[in-house]
């Protein structure tokens, strides 16, 4: 594989498993040094780090609760202290909570919005402040969801967070374009990750979903990572302010069962 990211440093939040882990390994395989962020699974972060080192790149692991401003500032500080800077930010960390709208608690709402939206907002701010001060360009890639645009009954807080992420991306693309920082979203649909384990085990539910996906299968984390790698690269230097959907056609064919 090419070395598009030699000399670059990337922070990938939530990179101890799933899509985040695949993104971290993909960027590392093309030369980037990686800040592997995790919330509560250090063993997963160590696994990601080992795979990055096996790919011939460098990684550090940093524990962070992205909803806490001191933690997100520390992620950026550690990138500079241990890896010499930071050029690419991938806001991947996310959570969802299944509940009918009338049953959503304030605590669950706060958890979902603070992790998915507040975390991305203030980590991007910390990342961008350093670049602006140094007059350096950069890349921000948010891992959003088809649900930034597509309804998801019983996940109102998640949809609100992802819809907010869409508008945040559009606004920041305008604000940060003049200083050479691009901002884009990648919106996965149904991807084969640990978070979907219960879905994969429920054949009737899985079959109903696959019936809604024109390509007839779930996506893989590597397919999401490939698009992130493009958006992080110099090839995407003129690409900003858009959402790139990776969903096998689901959004174009979705209907409530």
Task: Give a structural overview.
It comes from Granulicella rosea. This is Glucose 1-dehydrogenase. Pfam families: adh_short_C2. GO terms for molecular function: oxidoreductase activity. Residues 8-189 form the Ketoreductase domain. The chain contains nine helices and seven strands. The chain is 47% helix and 14% strand. The chain is an alpha/beta fold and 257 residues long. Strands 3-2-1-4-5-6-7 form a seven-stranded parallel β-sheet, sandwiched between helices. The model has no long low-confidence stretch (mean pLDDT 96). The chain has one domain: NAD(P)-binding Rossmann-like Domain (Rossmann fold), CATH 3.40.50. Helix 1 runs parallel beside helix 2 (42-54) and helix 4 (106-134) runs parallel beside helix 5 (156-176). It has helices at 18-29, 42-54, 69-83, 106-134, 156-176, 197-201, 203-212, 221-232, 250-253, and strands at 9-12, 33-38, 59-63, 88-91, 138-143, 181-188, 243-246.
